[in-house]
């Protein structure tokens, strides 16, 4: 009988436990690569000896930044990777970015044709059924790992995964390489999907993805987190505090001198038009404030699956002053004419759009999601309301519209904070320091 492809063995163990399947013998193909490998131990010993001879902080590094998502693309993750790459290069380091879309799509399709039937057969024979989400995830993991075999990972001093999936793939290769492997989660993958009913609580998908998150944490030498809000959820999955360093996202923002094109107060919301960003709450709040049509111009920047529904809502609420601008590549120019930046998000981490708005000097009105309150301090660098609380949003928005002095004070404070703490140089300098410390200590 033809040997089948098996998912990662630790995932099989988690699924066996979920389904109540008595663990079956693990074939050589299922074994973790390099486990208890004598070669691995010897290599790590050599690396430590070699690294201790180098002068602290003196080395220009070769760095691999890897992501499971296509790069480049529109969105915060892609912007973060570009900022990190360019910042590190400006310091003299060699930096490569690897993403699935950089590999041959012809080869990807060939692997897909082979692997999908094998995965389905494996799950049917072992558990009697399969789910499309897990089949898709296993397929993507397998194909990306096969493609990654063509990359000479040994030439890099640092491996930096930008998601849980890449951390698992690099982690498996790194069992033999023994390199410093960093992991930066840009969200709590499983928790977020359960919260918004994209997967059911207690389901096999929750078990599967949670196991991937746990293994990513285990594989990581160190974790760079975007805000302190990640600490508790990561700790609940096994992360040790000593392995977590918070580095707030910084941006290379080209500030344009503030100016106005009309006598109206300009409100801007820059975000993907999805269910988590709270656009509907913003429109409901605007509909409760009398006279906004003559006083205020509202700009909605971004696109997404909810655009049609949101446009319908705006028409039904009779908000003629709301304009949908779609995707734009002139965000600094838009923000330079913005008086109030509103992001009524109901689930977020540390949105780059808020950081950019702070650099522009606009007054910020947002919610206490994720790490937002670590940079937007209520009544100092912005105004904070509870996510989903339209009444609070209405009150604070009306207050900002009617108080020019407050808008200017909040905008100026936000600008100063951003220039001091949320620049590319600040972010990259801290991350480079983490890299150098790992290299200098020989701590793989």
Automatic annotation (TrEMBL):
Keywords associated with the record: Transferase
GO MF terms listed in the record are:
glycosyltransferase activity
| Chain spans, region Disordered | 29-58
Q: Does the keyword Transferase apply?
A: yes
UniProt lineage: Bacteria, Bacillati, Bacillota, Bacilli, Bacillales
Q: Does the keyword Transmembrane helix apply?
A: no
Pfam short name (any one):
Glyco_transf_4
- Which protein are we looking at? Glycosyltransferase family 4 protein
């Amino acid at each position: 009988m033809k040997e089948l492809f098996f998912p990662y063995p630790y995932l099989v163990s988690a699924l066996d436990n979920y389904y109540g399947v008595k663990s079956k013998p693990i074939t050589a193909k299922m074994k973790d690569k390099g486990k208890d490998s004598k070669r691995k131990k010897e290599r790590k010993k050599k690396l430590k000896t070699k690294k201790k001879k180098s002068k602290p902080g003196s080395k220009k590094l070769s760095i691999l930044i890897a992501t499971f998502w296509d790069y480049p693309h529109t969105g915060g993750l892609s912007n973060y990777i570009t900022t990190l790459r360019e910042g590190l290069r400006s310091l003299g380091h060699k930096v490569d970015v690897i993403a699935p879309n950089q590999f041959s799509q012809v080869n990807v399709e060939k692997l897909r044709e082979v692997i999908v039937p094998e995965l389905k057969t494996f799950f049917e024979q072992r558990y009697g059924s399969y789910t499309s989400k897990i089949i898709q995830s296993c397929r993507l993991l397998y194909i990306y790992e096969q493609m990654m075999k063509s990359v000479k990972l040994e030439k890099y001093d640092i491996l930096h995964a930008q998601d849980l999936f890449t951390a698992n793939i690099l982690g498996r290769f790194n069992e033999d390489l023994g390199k410093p492997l960093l992991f930066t989660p840009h969200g709590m993958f499983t928790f977020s999907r359960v919260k918004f009913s994209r997967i059911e609580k207690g389901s096999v998908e929750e078990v599967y993805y949670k196991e991937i998150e746990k293994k990513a944490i285990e594989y990581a030498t160190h974790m760079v987190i975007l805000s302190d809000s990640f600490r508790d959820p990561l700790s609940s999955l096994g992360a040790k505090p000593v392995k977590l360093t918070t580095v707030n996202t910084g941006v290379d923002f080209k500030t344009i001198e503030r100016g106005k094109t009309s006598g109206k107060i300009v409100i801007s919301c820059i975000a993907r038009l999805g269910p988590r960003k709270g656009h509907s709450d913003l429109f409901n709040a605007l509909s409760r404030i009398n006279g906004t049509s003559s006083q205020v111009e509202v700009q909605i920047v971004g696109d997404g699956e909810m655009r049609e529904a949101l446009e319908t809502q705006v028409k039904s609420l009779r908000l003629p002053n709301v304009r949908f601008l779609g995707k734009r590549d002139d965000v600094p120019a838009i923000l330079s004419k913005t008086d109030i930046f509103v992001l009524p998000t109901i689930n977020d981490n540390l949105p780059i759009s808020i950081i950019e708005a702070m650099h522009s000097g606009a007054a910020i009105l947002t919610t206490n999601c994720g790490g937002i309150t670590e940079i937007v301090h209520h009544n100092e660098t912005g105004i904070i309301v509870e996510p989903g609380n339209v009444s609070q949003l209405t009150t604070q928005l009306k207050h900002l519209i009617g108080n020019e002095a407050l808008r200017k004070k909040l905008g100026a404070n936000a600008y100063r904070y951003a220039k001091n703490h949320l620049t590319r140089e600040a972010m990259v300098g801290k991350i480079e320091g983490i890299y150098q410390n790992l290299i200098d200590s020989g701590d793989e």
